[in-house]
Design goal:
- It is built from ten helices and 15 strands.
- It is of the alpha/beta class.
- It has two domains: 2-119 and 269-323, Medium-chain alcohol dehydrogenases, catalytic domain (Quinone Oxidoreductase, Chain A, domain 1); 139-262, NAD(P)-binding Rossmann-like Domain (Rossmann fold).
- Strands 3, 4, 5, 6, 7, 14 and 15 form a seven-stranded mixed sheet that branches. Strands 10-9-8-11-12-13 form a six-stranded parallel sheet, with helices on both faces.
- Helix 3 links the parallel strand 8 (142-146) and strand 9.
- Helix 2 (114-134) crosses helix 3 (151-162) and helix 2 packs across helix 9.
- The longest helix has 21 residues, at 114-134.
- The chain is globular.
- It starts with a strand and ends with a strand.
């Protein structure tokens, strides 16, 4: 039997229900994947809560790793026995086994465990496109990264530093400062909306930052805009405090001809070629020690509600993994 998580409605973690189904036969272009580890991400929480709408009833989860158990007609990119991972839809990663499109599978190097792959691939691809495509970070770039002590933030900080950036990390509490500093922040600030921009101004000796990576949303919008140099870029990609209020175009002019973007992983992995390119860049960065998977806690699949509760309430200090 296959164990998987379904939700019939959105809401609190208890809406995640464990069900049993029969194994399936892969169709053209598909594989049947036995999963060893499943990544839990903030997007999963937002979908479960209803903040990011999905069609119901539905499975959940976009990141996993395991072994190819069967291949469908026409599949040549992988074969039975290959160790693989993935970091995009279709939804349904919260399962002991599943069907998945072969072209979206990433072959794993021998030295990378399934657990580490499930912890790093989705977050790593997110860091990769944010730092290399949304804004090309390089030597001397001044960046502000929210959530610098979290699973994604730690990857972004380390990678940005490797690219030569001056990194200011923002954390939600004093207890997280040491973790952000260990990740590589040049400066770490505890979030306080009324004073953050002034602290950034001081940390940059009056220059402000070139780019802000804001995963918080509503409560941080003004502070983020005020932390940018003229013609700087606000990258708003998260909604942990709710979606930002609509922004008047005149505000961008008044604050120095600023730019704002709302990027998504889906738009940056729309083709299999682009997806595989970004995934290989992540694996190369892991192999080189540029970024490192940081696993905070692993839960059995049946305890997925506890995993969501920890992530939603900011208890996690790194990646959360589910194991079938």
């Amino acid at each position: 039997m296959v164990m998987h998580i379904r939700l019939q409605q959105t809401g609190a973690p208890h809406v995640l229900q464990l069900e049993q189904t029969e194994p399936q036969t892969p169709g053209p272009g598909e594989v049947w994947l036995d999963q060893a580890a499943i990544g839990v991400n903030p997007l999963d929480v937002n979908q479960r809560k209803g903040d990011v709408p999905i069609a119901l009833p539905s499975g959940l989860g976009l990141e996993g790793a395991g072994t190819v158990a069967a291949v469908g007609p026409g599949v040549t990119s992988v074969q039975v026995g290959d160790r693989v991972a993935y970091a995009t839809g279709p939804l349904g990663a919260y399962a002991s086994a599943r069907l998945f499109p072969a072209e979206r599978l990433v072959k794993l190097p021998d030295l990378l465990t399934a657990t580490d792959a499930a912890a790093v691939l989705f977050k790593g691809i997110t860091a990769q496109y944010l730092l290399k495509s949304t804004y090309p970070v390089g030597p001397g770039t001044r960046v502000l990264i929210y959530g610098a002590a979290g699973a994604l933030g730690q990857l972004m900080v380390a990678w940005a530093r490797h690219l030569g950036a001056f990194v200011i990390g923002v954390v939600s509490k004093v207890q997280s400062v040491a973790r952000a500093q260990a990740a590589g922040c040049n400066e770490t600030l505890v979030f306080d909306a009324p004073t953050l921009a002034a602290q950034v101004l001081e940390a940059t000796q009056g220059h402000k930052v070139d780019v802000v990576y804001d995963s918080v949303g509503r409560v941080s919008l003004d502070a983020s805009l005020d932390s940018l140099r003229p013609r700087g870029l606000l990258v708003s990609y998260g909604v942990t405090s709710g979606a930002p209020e609509p922004l008047a175009m005149a505000t961008l002019n008044a604050k120095g001809s600023l730019f704002v973007t709302r990027p998504s992983l889906a738009a940056h992995t729309a083709t299999a070629q682009e997806y595989q390119h970004r995934a290989q860049d992540v694996l190369t960065a892991v192999a080189a020690g540029i970024i490192t998977p940081h696993i905070w806690r692993s839960y059995p699949l049946a305890e997925v509600a506890n995993a969501h509760d920890d992530l939603q309430h900011g208890r996690s200090q790194g990646a959360i993994i589910l194991t079938p």
